[in-house]
Amino acid sequence: MTGKTSARRTDLDGHVAIVTGGSSGLGHAIALALAEAGSAVALVSRRREAGERAAARITSCTGRAASALACDVSDEAGVHRVVGEVAERFGRLDILVTSAGDPGQGRRRRARRGPAPALP
């Protein structure tokens, strides 16, 4: 054993990712790592301003496209809107990271079973 470690990097050039909770914390760290690997990222946050600041930081650090979309992920119609906007803006969607936290405000909803919606 040489004592050296090597991080395996994935080439995500040309891929597009949605990261919920991407304006701060773990979601932001994941979005930054995806952008560093070559992916364009769409940050989903309940607060558009926080998302825009985070997207600007990611673009500044990586040179990759990053955008911010406001959405409360407990709102099913809002989630469909966001997926449609990302697909329209970038022409594809390859990666979905769900990192939005529960604000503890009692908004829990049961997940509906059934097929995932098709991308436009």
Summarize the structure.
This protein has 120 residues and is an alpha/beta fold. Helix content is 35%, strand content 17%. Strands 3-2-1-4 form a 4-stranded parallel beta sheet, with helices on both faces.
Task: List the main descriptive attributes of the protein structure presented here.
disordered N terminus; alpha/beta; four-stranded parallel sheet; 4 strands; Rossmann fold; globular; 3 helices; 120 residues; 35% helix
Write a structural description:
The structure is a single chain. The chain has 120 residues and is of the alpha/beta class. It has a domain at 16-98: Rossmann fold, CATH 3.40.50.720. It is 35% helix and 17% strand. It has helices spanning 25-36, 48-62, 76-90, and strands at residues 16-20, 40-45, 66-70, 95-98. Strands 3-2-1-4 form a 4-stranded parallel β-sheet, with helices on both faces. The radius of gyration is 15 Å and the shape is globular. Residues 1-7 and 104-113 have low confidence and may be disordered.
Beta-strand residue percentage? 15-25%
* CATH fold group of the domain at 16-98: Rossmann fold
Broad shape: globular
Structural category: alpha/beta
Question: How much helix is in the residues?
Answer: 25-40%
Count all strands and give the number.
Answer: 4
Q: Termini, distance in Å?
A: 50 Å
Q: Could you give the order of the helices and strands?
A: EHEHEHE
CATH fourth-tier homologous superfamily of the domain at 16-98: NAD(P)-binding Rossmann-like Domain
Low-confidence stretches: 1-7, 104-113
CATH-defined architecture of the domain at 16-98: 3-Layer(aba) Sandwich
Alpha carbon gyration radius: 15 Å
Query: Order of strands side by side in the largest beta sheet?
Result: 3-2-1-4
Number of helices: 3
Largest sheet: 4 strands, parallel
The average pLDDT value, as a whole number, equals 84
Subunit arrangement of the protein: single chain
CATH class category of the domain at 16-98: Alpha Beta
